[in-house]
Amino acid sequence: MQAAHDNFQETNCSLVEPRAKSCPMKKITAFTITFFALLFSTNFALAAVLPTAPAPANLNPQVELGVSPDGSSNFRKAVLNGEKLCWNLRCAQSGVETQVFGAQSLTRLGGDLLEDLTAQAKDLAQDEWPDSIMEGPYVSFFNITIQEITTISQNGKALGYRLVIQDPAWQIDGCHYEPREPATLAACKPGRFEQVIFISVSLREAFHDPQTEVQFLPR
User: Structural domain of residue 39, as residue ranges?
Assistant: First the structure.
């Protein structure tokens, strides 16, 4: 009976007064559960009392993309406001600072930037010209070149670029042009398309000068 009682006490020591040598693991387990219960309750109480940290300001996409509260870009606003006083933005009253790079000095801006700006200009032309000037008697193959770049900044912060772009074009209403035979353009009036466009410094925004549309300039 004594042996049975000892065995019962060792295997069910949570039900009777445990002996020091009979239930060491049970004591450790109970201590561990109590410790983590206290830790959890303390963290929960702190979370309820401490205020939540505000989100960083730079997570606001409008701040990152330079967008004003009314939805228009700061770059576009600066251009439109400046052009009201100077059509080419090159006066002190325009509110922006400019630096002009002509055809002979474009390489000073770097080959990578020129390539990116040319690609953006071509995309804009392909998107807009078919629904504007090319609805008339003109043909162009979008071989865009940049003739002039004006850098635009405000209070020392770069905003974007003003580009004068050109593309070889032909007036075809006075000749017999066959689209499948490019050589027939030789009898048509040659010239070029020219337009002023603006591209933001992030290269995410491009738009044409709202005061001047693309025009055909005969040679």
Answer: 2-49
